[in-house]
What does this fold into?
Amino acid sequence: MKLSPVFLVLAALSLLGLLFAPTLILGAPREATMGFVYTIFYYHVPVAWTCFMAAFVCAFGSAIYLFKGSEWGDRLAISAGELTVLFCLCTLVTGPLWGRKAWGVYWQWDVRLTTTLLLFMIFIAYLFARRYGGPGSKKLAAGLALFGAADVPLIYFSVSIWRTIHPKATVVSRLAPGMGKPFALAMITFNIFFFVLLIMRMGLERTRARVDELHLAAEDAGLDD
It folds into this structure.
């Protein structure tokens, strides 16, 4: 696969971010209550945000496929759908590690935690539907992706609508001096890293589609014996 200049620039930026962000994070002030454990905040929040972004990208590609029959949209959807599962899993792992220190337990059936788990299950179902759904599986999965994306605003605003033990989104705006730059770098790095992975995954999907086309052409020509 030929690597485009844009991809190379994004890959280089994400690599630099992954190298320098830990240095800034380790040099940031310690949170008074949680101490060193609070550094997981710089990872947990960016991966959660990236998970939300991946879900919306998957829904966008699914909508294009549903309404226009675009194979590009379908490739975008499956690529982003897999990344949604990946980043949502990272969110569900890092969140309880933080929660164990803050709440004394790894898991609470808090509304934000529960709706995030629901998002993970929806996109797991999306992948299963695509693989084992039979005829019409792509359209069925596309509908699941749209349903999953609708869960994202519920997750985000849940801490403002219901009583919840999860910190509100305003915690970011109240970061102590010295915490803002490491957090911003972590957010930017994970956003760029997502697009690097998305481009790579879409390239794999294009290659897979091309191989299938060649295989069918060989069968039609009687060469696949």
Observations:
- Helices lie at 5-27, 41-68, 71-103, 111-132, 137-161, 180-220.
- Residues 39 and 174 are 16 Å apart (CA to CA).
